[in-house]
Design a protein that fits this description.
two-stranded antiparallel ribbon; 7 helices; 11 strands; ETF_a/b_N
Length: about 270
């Protein structure tokens, strides 16, 4: 028998249902947002987070006790959770919202994650159930805000490592080594657990869920919670006044020589400084 590790690691991976990256975005007729009646899938950065959690379990060989995927959203968010389970997550938590409800803002998401972690990490929790690592995408491709991970770390008082392009965890030492790309090179951060890590594109390439794993995912447990269960208020703090498509680009024109170019510029009211 392999000796049990000195410490165990339970990983939480938040995942978001977003408009598929290959879909051409359209503004709805009311100009209040985008047309949601299009294909949705898991946010690509969150796919990378799920993949990294699964790879950590493969590398650490017994030290990772569980990978929990969590999603906040309408009933169709269950499809996103099933994808995470098929990729290798062990269980899922769905914070259910009604159809048509506005997507929660980053602070509300961070408060939700904090509440879920608090349920796992209370005084009566067994060491194997305690969440010491949260891995999530650095941003969602629908709003591109990129602040949920930082807000969560602030609420929890945990360390944070953003935009990770490499992640190594030493469970016995309670440390993680995170590499992040910066202008002109790479930066290495040595962090203590518990820790919040946000993933960048070059961290890994997510695997495809195989058909057998898709079938197994249907039998994995999914816990359904409501915002009231977690004591989180999703009332929006921001108001979107208007969403509009960018103006149609006008085709350019050709000029025969510099003099004609200068004349065109003058006609357009453009003069030299």
């Amino acid at each position: 028998m392999r000796p049990s590790p000195a410490r165990l690691l339970n990983i939480l991976v938040p995942v978001k249902r977003a408009v598929d990256y290959a879909v051409k975005i359209r503004v709805n007729p009311q100009q209040t947002g985008i047309d949601a009646n299009v294909k949705h899938s898991m946010n690509p950065f969150d796919e990378i987070a799920v993949e990294e959690a699964v790879r950590l379990r493969e590398r650490l060989k017994g030290a990772v006790t569980s990978i929990t995927a969590l999603s906040i959203g309408p009933p169709k968010s269950l499809d996103t959770l099933r994808t995470a389970l098929a990729m290798g997550a062990d269980r899922a938590v769905h914070v259910a919202l009604p159809d048509g409800a506005p997507a929660p803002e980053p602070l509300a998401v961070a408060r939700t994650l904090r509440a879920v972690i608090a349920r796992h990490n209370d005084a009566a929790a067994a060491p194997a159930d305690r969440i010491d690592l949260v891995v999530l995408g650095k941003q969602a491709i629908d709003d591109d805000l990129g602040v949920t991970g930082q807000m969560l770390a602030g609420l929890l008082g945990w360390g944070q490592a953003t935009c990770a392009s490499r992640l190594e965890v030493d469970v016995a030492a309670g440390e993680a080594l995170v590499t992040r790309e910066i202008d002109g090179g790479a930066e290495e951060l040595r962090c203590r657990l518990p820790l919040v890590v946000t993933t960048d594109l070059r961290l890994n390439e997510p695997r495809y869920a195989s058909l057998p794993n898709i079938m197994k995912a249907k039998k994995k447990p999914v816990e359904t919670l409501s915002p009231a269960d977690l004591g989180v208020d999703y009332t929006p703090q921001l108001e979107t006044l208007k969403v509009a498509e960018p103006p149609v680009r006008v085709g350019g024109g050709k000029v025969a020589n510099v003099d004609e170019l200068i004349a065109k510029l003058k006609e357009a009211g453009i003069t030299a400084a």
